[in-house]
Amino acid sequence: MSTLKESFKTMIPDVLMLLVSIVGSLLLLVFSPLLHLMNAFRNKSFPTPKVIVITGVTCGIGRSLALKYADNGVVLALIGRSMDKLNELKADCQRKAPNCQVTLAQIDVSHRDKLKKFLSEFDAQHSVDLVIANAGISDATLSKEMSYEEKAYEIINTNVNGAMNTLLPLLPSFRKRRHGQIVLIGSLSPFLSMMYPTYSASKAAVNSYALTLRHELKPYGIGVTMVAPGFVFTHMTDVLGATKLPMAVSSEYAAQTIHDGVSQNRAFIGFSTGTMLTTWFASIIPPDFRDSIYPIMMRLVDTPSDSIVYTNEKEQLKNSTDKDRQLKLFSSSQATVEQVTNSKKIQ
Ligand SMILES: NC(=O)c1ccc[n+]([C@@H]2O[C@H](COP(=O)([O-])OP(=O)(O)OC[C@H]3O[C@@H](n4cnc5c(N)ncnc54)[C@H](OP(=O)(O)O)[C@@H]3O)[C@@H](O)[C@H]2O)c1
User: Fold this and answer.
1) What pLDDT, in 10s, does the model give residues 245-266?
2) Where are the beta strands (DSSP E) in the chain?
3) CATH fold label, 51-283
4) Residue 269: beta bridge partners?
5) What are 224's strand-pairing partners?
6) Where in the chain are the domains?
7) What is the reported pTM?
8) pLDDT class for 3, splitting at 50, 70, 90?
9) Mutational pocket test of ligand 1: of 54, 55, 68, 81, the residue with most ligand atoms within 8 Å of the beta carbon
C-alpha cells in the first residue's frame, strides 16, 4: 500500500509538467497572431542568395539542395567526399543552368583545417551569402565493422564538429559584412529521443546550436535557420532496412521546403507536417511516461528490433561465452521479449 502511495507521489512532477504544457500552449495560442505580427516587422528579409556553400552533396538531401539552388548567375561551392559524384553533380547543375558557376571541394567536413582553408579562400573570392551544413551520418550509414564506441565518436565528429567546421570560418566575414544566412540540418529525432542515442544527441546539439545562434547573430544582420527533417527517402533511411517509414518525403520535397523556408528567413523548418506534429507531441511527454508509451510507438517505425547500432556487438555475441554480457546486450538494446527469452535460453 505504501509503495503504491510512493509511486503516486512520483507522478506529481509528471502531471505538473503536463499541466504547464496545457496552460502554456493556451497562452501562446491566444497571443500567436500578435507574435506573428511582431516577427513580420522585426525579422530581416534577405535577397535571393547568389553565392552558396553546401556540404554533403554527393547524395540525398544535399544533392537535391544543390540542384534546387543551381541557377544562372549563381556561384555554388559543393563539398563532398567522392570526386566522381561531385563531378556528376556539377554536370547536372550546369545542365539545368549553363551559367551556374560550380566550385567543387573534395573535403571531409570533420577535417577542420582543410575545410577552413577552402571556405576562407572561397569567401574572399566570392563573398558567401548562404551556407548549408548538411553533411551527416547515422549509426546505420557507418560500416558494420565499426564498434559501438567508434561509431559514437564518428557521429559526433561529423554531425556536430562537421557543422561547426562549416560555419565558424565564415562567421567573421558575415559579421563584418552584416550579411549572410546559415542553415543547419538537424532533425526531428531529438524531439522523440526514442532510438539511436548518439545520432539523436548529435542532432539535438545541432538543433539547439542553430536556435541559440540565431539570437546571438541577429544583431549582426545574420540569419540562422534550423532545419528538422522527419523521414526522408535517402541512403540514410535505405540502410535502416525498414519496411515502414511513417510520413516519409522525397529529397526533392525536402529541398523545396528548405529553399522556401530559408528564403523567408524562418527560425525553424520542420517536415513532413505529420511527423513534425507527432514528434512535437512526443517532446511534451514526461520522460517517465515514455517508458510505457514508446514500445507502442516503436511499432510504427519498423526498424529491425535490436537496432542497427548493435549489429557489430551481435556478431561478437555469437562467439561470446559470457552469458551475462549477452543478456545485458540484448536488454539494453531495443530487444524484443522473444530475443531476451532466447538469450536466456543460452544460459
Ligand atoms: N534522411 C532522413 O530521414 C533524415 C532525417 C533527419 C535528418 N537528416 C539529416 O539530413 C542530412 C542529409 O542526410 P541524407 O538523408 O541526405 O543522407 P545521405 O543520403 O546519407 O547523405 C549524406 C551526405 O553527407 C555526406 N557526408 C557524410 N559524412 C561526411 C563527411 N564527413 N564529410 C563530407 N560529407 C559527408 C555523404 O557523403 P558520402 O557519400 O561521402 O558518404 C552524403 O553526401 C544529414 O545531416 C542527416 O542527418 C536526414
Assistant:
1) 889 999 999 999 999 999 999 9
2) 51-55, 75-80, 101-106, 130-133, 181-185, 223-229, 232-233, 249-250, 268-271
3) Rossmann fold (3.40.50)
4) 227
5) 182
6) 51-283, 304-346
7) 0.88
8) confident
9) 81
